[in-house]
Amino acid sequence: MLTIDDVTAIPLFSALPATERERLARTSADLHLGAGEFAVHEGGERALFAVLTGKIEVIKTIDGIERTLGWRLPGTIFGEVPIALGTPFPGGYRASEPSRVMRIDIQQYYAVAAASKDISLKVSALARERLGGLQNIAAEPHKPRVTLVGHRWDTACGNLRRFLARNQISFNWVTPDVPELSTLLPGDCPPDSDFPVLRFADGQVVVRPQARDIANRLGLQTSARSDEYDVAIVGGGPAGLAAAVYGASEGLRTVVIEREAPGGQAGTSSRIENYLGFPSGVSGDELASRALQQARRLGAEILVTRSVARIDPKTREVFLDGDDVVRARTLILATGVTWRRLAIDGFDRLIGKGVYYGAARSEVGATHGLDIHQLGRSGGAIFCQPCPYGNPCLPRWFVGKEHVSLPGCATSRKVEHSGPIGIGNTCGPRRHELDGDRHSRQRKQGDASV
């Protein structure tokens, strides 16, 4: 329990009248933290904290990597930046050793600041000083964790771009014909058969890598840490991640098994307007990122690049590819859906080479300077248009006038776009056969052009 002497030991409050110090001691929370426990997480709500004993580490996740920004020692405060800006905490504050921290609710802080303007001035001055440090961090040159070299229409290269983007790994993608290739890949240029090539930040170069190998090298979890769990969830979309949050928050040992990347199809959407709790909408990757951070913070394990070979409902065993087995008291299947495919000859040969079902943000670079033809005008089709991703280099974007015969395509919505859109007769009911050998530039036509 806090005493008036504890409050007086904080220089910020030492000059307050005894009545105000007594009120702070009575109304503030007394937090006893073990090593590794958080006083407040990144994104936490506003409050003012003061360190009484111990040592607090200031951390922030930048590009998926946790960075230490500083330390708070006894007598110092933190929380001034959220108070000054009216925003959540930009970083997390974690005890590096057993510590004792005083937490002042935002309303109690305003009451103290009203009684002593000197408190408000000192907190504001400290906020300006630390904002400068945050600005310096934000101004640091962005260093991608991976450089990907591959041909634009190579299916393997497209798969790697989507994998990296959906797992929120920053990367730089270039084609083999760029002039600066020699600086990105030191040594002799690899032959075409070796592409795609990945170069990691530490200088390692991998030829035609597999997704699981990339995940392991970048620190993504691909194997379960235990053989048995309370809850095993198959599928890492919004439903699977929500189940992981609820299970882990109840103290259950929880594992999520995802074959590609957390977020599911929702993670590829440019904007989601109808998800509870986001009145102004949210992008799919931001929703996936927040849910993933929340599930991991609560202790859930998220496995990526793992597929389920079969499930034994009697023993509640999940058999993964690679012969790994996970047992759980409860199994939850949140496998989501897959895209319906058009029954047009040649389409399958072009997937990833200019034909996409729900194009994701990672395809913006591949569409630079090209016309876009959209087939289907349902909510799902509008959901996945590349134009809202901010690609101003689309010369024309054609949306079909006629309805494509796909079950469930019965809705439409207004599109806020940044590029020019042309309405063309691009997806009528006629059948066409596409020649996949020369990408999408040539086609065998029926009785009309597309």
Overall helicity: 10-25%
CATH topology of the largest domain: Jelly Rolls
- Number of helix segments? 12
When the domains are counted, the total is 4
Distance between the termini: 75 Å
Order of the strands making up the biggest sheet = 15-14-13-18-17-16
Gross CATH architecture of the largest domain = Sandwich
Q: Can you count the beta strands?
A: 24
Major beta-sheet overview = 6 strands, mixed
The secondary-structure class comes to: alpha/beta
Mean of all residue-level pLDDT scores: 80
- Low-confidence runs of at least 5 consecutive residues: 379-395, 401-432, 438-450
Describe this structure in words.
- With 450 residues, the protein is α/β, with parallel strands linked by helices.
- It folds into four domains: 4-138, Jelly Rolls (Sandwich); 146-217, Glutaredoxin; 228-333, 3-Layer(bba) Sandwich (FAD/NAD(P)-binding domain), CATH 3.50.50.60; 347-444, no CATH class.
- Helices cover 25% and strands 24% of the residues.
- The protein is built from twelve helices and 24 strands.
- The strands form six sheets. It has a six-stranded mixed β-sheet with strand order 15-14-13-18-17-16, covered by helices on one side. It has a four-stranded antiparallel β-sheet with strand order 1-8-3-6.
- Strand 14 (254-257), helix 10 and strand 15 (301-303) form a beta-alpha-beta unit.
- The longest helix is centred in the first third of the chain and has 22 residues, at 117-138.
- The chain is globular and about 80 Å long.
- Mean pLDDT is 80; it is low at 379-395, 401-432 and 438-450.
